[in-house]
Amino acid sequence: MEKNLSNEEALKKMKSAVESIGICMMAAIGGDGASRPMSVAGCDDNGDIWFFTKKITGAGEEAGSQQKVALHFSSPAKLNFLCVLGDSALVNDKTKMEELWNPMMKTWFPDGLETPGITLIRVDPASAHYWESSASRIELLYSWAKAQITGSPADGSEGRSGSLDV
């Protein structure tokens, strides 16, 4: 079932998915074709999605040239998926970095906010699309097993999907 959302409802759906999944694959559109796993630092009330990086990384260099990017979020365990297309930019704002900093970030930035070259990537979403299953994993497994035995298409995998106009 398709359900397109807009404004506050769309922003709430996108923000919930981004924050609950927390990690995405980021790919520059028209870039080198590489997708990079990125840990979300935050999603603000405007819908901007934030990431920490270093300026000299592939993601940092692409964002520095203000590439259009695709963010692919996937939670197979919850059967939730989200794709966000948007414009990326490097933002070197210490106040914003302090606001978004999480002690887990020390995994990648051992010197904290004093890590040389640390900066933020901001992705301003232009469009988004979500897909989520309305069935539980057990219902889907039963449906898939039944389909294998009977040779008929699986039931219950329809789910909900739609565009998010944030």
Structural commentary:
The protein has 166 residues and is of the alpha+beta class. The protein has one domain: Electron Transport, Fmn-binding Protein, Chain A (Pnp Oxidase, Chain A, Roll). 26% of the residues lie in helices and 39% in strands. The chain contains 4 helices and 8 strands, in the order βαβββαββαβαβ. Strand 5 and strand 6 (80-91) form a beta hairpin.
The neighbouring-strand order within the major sheet is 2-3-4-7-6-5
Give the count of structural domains: 1
CATH topology, which one?
A: Pnp Oxidase, Chain A
Total number of helices: 4
- Range of helix content: 25-40%
Helix-strand pattern: EHEEEHEEHEHE
Q: Which word captures the global form?
A: elongated
Indicate the CATH class.
Mainly Beta
Instruction: Please state the CA-atom Rg, rounded to the nearest Å.
Output: 18 Å
How confident is the prediction overall: mean pLDDT? 86
Q: What is the percentage of strand-forming residues?
A: 35-45%
Q: What CATH architecture do you see?
A: Roll
| Structural class computed from helices and strand pairing | alpha+beta
The fourth-level CATH homologous superfamily is Electron Transport, Fmn-binding Protein, Chain A
Number of strands: 8
Pick out the low-confidence regions.
Answer: none
- Largest sheet descriptor: 6 strands, antiparallel, barrel
Q: What gap, in angstroms, lies between the N and C termini?
A: 20 Å
